[in-house]
Amino acid sequence: MVTDNDVQDIAALRTMMVRELRDQGAIQSEPVAAAFAAVPRHLFTPGESLQVAYGVDNAPIVKRGDDGLTLSSVSAPHLQATMLEAAEVKPGMRVCEVGSGGYNAALLAELVGGSGHVTSVDIDPDIVERASTFLNEAGYHRVDVVLADAEEGVPEAAPFDRIIVTAGSWDIPPAWIDQLTDDGRIVVPLRLKGTTRWIAFDRDSRGSLVSRGYGLCVFVPFQGAGSHTERNVTIDDGVVLRLDDEDLKIDVAAARRALHLPKIERWSGAVFDMPDEQMLFLLTNDPNMALLHADQQVIDQGLLSRPALRGVPVLIGSDSFAYRAARPNDDMSSGYESGVYAHGPSAEELAGRYVELLRRWASKYHRRGAASIEYLPKPAEPAAHSSAVIAKRHGTVVVTWP
After folding, report:
1. Catalytic site positions
2. What is the torsion angle, in degrees rounded to the nearest 10, for the CA atoms of residue 8, residue 10, residue 11 and residue 15?
3. Are strands 94-98 and 160-165 parallel, antiparallel or unpaired?
4. How does residue 3 score in pLDDT terms, banded at 50, 70 and 90?
5. Element (DSSP H or E) covering residue 257
6. Per-domain residue ranges for the chain?
7. Can you tell me the distance from the alpha carbon of 177 to that of 192, in angstroms, rounded to the nearest whole number?
């Protein structure tokens, strides 16, 4: 039973959440602020404390698989607000949400108003039942929650002015583009080179998708026909390379030998800042870039340095590898200088290539949103193949740096 004190606490927490999201820049418009102020998030996170429910960076887990991995969660308000702002949902629009949780669908219902419509689709019957129940309890009876594999979209409810995807997607199915209006927008957490970025794509006159904004994010992976297993190459115990390119050749034995050789370090004299933006640049500007991951034991042993703990861009050579580093430097605007750690017989050559990339990024692209990302559905072909051209099942992603 909700007491008068609970009602007061909920109101205060919701007000605080909106204020914090404004301060962080996640909320930038009055309609999005009003939606977050109106929807009772705690009703969609039963079992969690009010403080957890309304924490701007909290993403309560809804369901785990038998292996303990997360199958569904309620995304953090900060990420939801950021993606809703990017979507620019207007009253009267028809919106499809891919991946149901209930709360985000309620926010969308507030944004489209009584003249619009929201359809939310999920492959998991437990999640569909849960979302439907909570939406009804919260008073959002006009949201349609559909049980289906979202790879095919929801044709009976199309076309959509906006498609908002709330699961990590390796590709963009043709159905999503086909069910988008000619001037529609899709906001999708797209897997690129081992990392995920939400990208706001507008449909152009050719049927291709052109980015209007992007940002680093983490989402539960897509299930069903659109799921994809990444290529992971184990170099040694606790050391893994994560690749998005099936053609990149890895000599595991040579990489293992390099790992156990002393590292060299080289410093660029260029700023270390906005590591997510710099990461995207590095991964899309050399065809031999991958992501290097190491566990804590490997770090503690001194085989690799701390940047590898969460994944760091690594340049792969035939017998050597090099990865990004940073050190304090008061002469830099961020207080840090970028550099490289390299292992193996060709460490010096790889470090030199890497340092030049770091300098190029710092001199030309040291800002948010410097890249342009385009999705070309098949049979369209990019103008040229390079490290910035990423082949997918249904099309090609092209990342350019103007």
Report:
1. 75
2. 140
3. parallel
4. low
5. helix 252-259
6. 4-226, 231-364
7. 19
Check whether the bond before 91 is cis (ω within 30° of 0). Answer: no
Instruction: Encode 171-190 in three state secondary structure.
Output: CCCHHHHHCEEEEEEEEEEE
Name residue, tokens 């205060």. 12
User: Half-sphere exposure of 179 toward its Cβ, with a 13 Å CA cutoff?
Assistant: 25
| Residue 240 · residue 232 · CB < 8 Å | yes
* Axis crossing angle, helix 77-87 with helix 30-38, rounded to the nearest 10: 140
Q: Which of 121, 217, 223 is nearest to 176 (CA)?
A: 121
Query: Does the pLDDT value for residue 2 go beyond 70?
Result: no
Distance CA 122, CA 134 (A): 15
User: What CATH number should be reported for the domain whose range is 4-226?
Assistant: 3.40.50.150
The H-or-E segment that residue 212 falls in is strand 209-216
pTM comes to 0.92
Confidence band (pLDDT; 50, 70, 90) for 384? Answer: low
CA distance 353 to 289: 11
Rounded to the nearest 10 degrees, how much is the dihedral formed by the CA atoms of 39, 45, 48, 50?
0
